[in-house]
Design a protein that fits this description.
The complex is a heterodimer of chains A (233) and B (105). Chain A is mainly α and 233 residues long. Chain A has a domain of 150 residues. Chain A is 76% helix and 0% strand. In chain A, 53% of the residues are buried. Chain B has 105 residues and is mainly alpha-helical. Chain B has four helices and two strands. In chain B, strand 1 and strand 2 form a beta hairpin. Classes of the chains: A mainly alpha (233), B mainly alpha (105). At the A-B interface, helix 1, helix 3, helix 4, helix 5 and helix 6 of A face helix 1, helix 2, strand 2, helix 3 and helix 4 of B.
Chain lengths: 233, 105
C-alpha cells in the first residue's frame, strides 16, 4: 500500500484522537456560520438542521443556501451543491483502499466521507490509526457540526462573527497540517500538491465555485506524464 | 424557504451528496489493482485538499485576495517547519489572523 507503509512511526490511539478532536473543534465551529447564513437565507431552523444532519458536507451546504439567498433557481442551487460534493467520490475511492471498511459498515461510513475525515485518515502512518482517525473525526465532527448549526440557527447574533476569532484561517491551516506528512513523503506528492494549487487558483476567477478544486485533479496526469518523460530521456 | 420546495431541494441534495460519497467508497476492490487507477486514487486527495486549502486561503467569492487569512496560514506553515504539534499549528493560524484583524480594524 503506497503512502501508508512503515516509513512513519506508529502512533498511539490517544494521539490520533487528539488530532481528530482538534480538527472537529476548528471546523465544527463554522457550523455556527452555516446555521446563521441558512436562516438568514430563508431556511427554517428545522430545514437548516436537516441540511447539516443529512447533507453533511459543509461546502455543498454553504453553496446551496448561498445560491438560494442570491435568488438562484432551485435546480441551479442543487447542481452547485452536487458539484462541490463530487470531490467526496474521489475521497471515497482512496478511503476504500486505505480503510478497507467491512461491507456492512460502508453505508454508515459513506455519510462521513468528507474533507476532514479524509485528511485525518490520510495523515496517519498505518491502517489501524487511519481507521481510528476516520472514526474519531466522523463522530466528533458530526456532533460538533450539528450542535453548532443549531446554535447558529437559533441564536445567530449571540456568538458574533467567527471570522473575528480567525477561524476562517484555522480551517485551511488544519488541512495544510494534515497534508504535511504526505507532502514530506515524496516528490510526486509535493509536485501534485503544488500544481493543484496553481490550477485551482488560476481557475477561481474564471469558473463556478467547486469547479476549480475538481479541475485540480488534472495535476495528477500532468505530474505522472512529466515524470515519465523525464525517465524516457 | 417555501416549505414544500425547500424540503424537496434539501432531500434531493442530501440523496445526491450521499450517493456521491457511497459511489466512491463502493468501487470494486479489483479496480484498484490496476496500477494507473491506484496511483490516481492515491494522489487525488492530495490534489483536492491542496487545492481546497489554497482556495480557502486566497479565495474571496470568485476573486483572489491576500488578507489576514494568508498571514495565518503562513504562520501555520512556519509552525509545521518547526515541527510544532497539530493543535499549535491551528491555534497559530487563528491567533495571527485574529490579531491582524484586531490591529487593522
Amino acid at each position: 500500500m503506497r503512502g501508508v507503509t512503515t516509513t512513519l512511526p506508529a502512533r498511539s490511539t490517544g494521539a490520533v484522537v487528539r488530532d481528530a478532536l482538534a480538527v472537529s473543534l476548528a471546523v465544527g465551529v463554522s457550523g455556527v456560520a452555516f446555521g446563521a447564513t441558512a436562516t438568514a437565507s430563508g431556511f427554517s431552523v428545522a430545514q437548516t438542521c436537516a441540511l447539516s444532519l443529512f447533507v453533511c458536507t459543509g461546502a455543498s451546504q454553504f453553496a446551496l443556501v448561498g445560491s438560494v439567498a442570491s435568488g438562484g433557481s432551485p435546480v441551479a442551487a442543487v447542481a452547485g451543491a452536487l458539484l462541490l460534493g463530487a470531490r467526496n467520490t474521489f475521497y471515497g475511492v482512496r478511503l476504500a483502499d486505505l480503510l478497507k471498511p467491512r461491507p456492512m459498515l460502508r453505508p454508515v461510513a459513506a455519510h462521513m466521507v468528507i474533507d476532514e475525515t479524509t485528511a485525518v485518515a490520510l495523515a496517519q502512518p498505518d491502517r489501524r490509526s487511519a481507521r481510528v482517525g476516520f472514526t474519531a473525526t466522523a463522530i466528533a465532527l458530526y456532533t460538533a457540526w450539528n450542535l453548532t448549526t443549531l446554535a447558529g440557527a437559533v441564536g445567530a447574533g449571540l456568538i458574533g462573527d467567527t471570522a473575528a476569532y480567525g477561524l476562517d484561517a484555522a480551517v485551511p491551516a488544519a488541512f495544510l497540517a494534515l497534508l504535511w506528512p504526505r507532502l514530506a513523503e515524496g516528490r510526486d506528492q509535493r509536485r501534485t500538491g503544488l500544481v493543484a494549487v496553481v490550477i485551482a487558483l488560476a481557475a477561481t476567477p474564471l469558473l463556478a465555485p467547486g469547479v476549480p478544486v475538481l479541475l485540480a485533479l488534472l495535476a495528477i496526469p500532468a505530474v505522472v506524464l512529466a515524470a515519465r518523460t523525464r525517465r524516457a530521456r | 424557504m417555501g416549505s414544500l420546495s425547500g424540503w424537496v431541494m434539501i432531500a434531493v441534495t442530501a440523496a445526491g451528496c450521499y450517493a456521491l460519497k457511497l459511489a466512491g467508497l463502493s468501487v470494486p476492490a479489483h479496480w484498484l489493482e490496476h496500477p494507473a487507477l491506484r496511483r490516481f486514487a492515491a494522489l487525488a486527495p492530495v490534489a483536492l485538499l491542496a487545492a481546497l486549502t489554497a482556495v480557502q486561503t486566497f479565495g474571496h467569492d470568485q476573486a483572489l485576495t491576500i488578507d489576514a487569512r494568508a498571514a495565518g496560514v503562513a504562520a501555520a506553515a512556519v509552525a509545521l517547519l518547526l515541527r510544532a504539534p497539530f493543535l499549535v499549528v491551528v491555534i497559530a493560524a487563528a491567533a495571527v489572523t485574529a490579531g491582524l484583524r484586531l490591529l487593522t480594524g
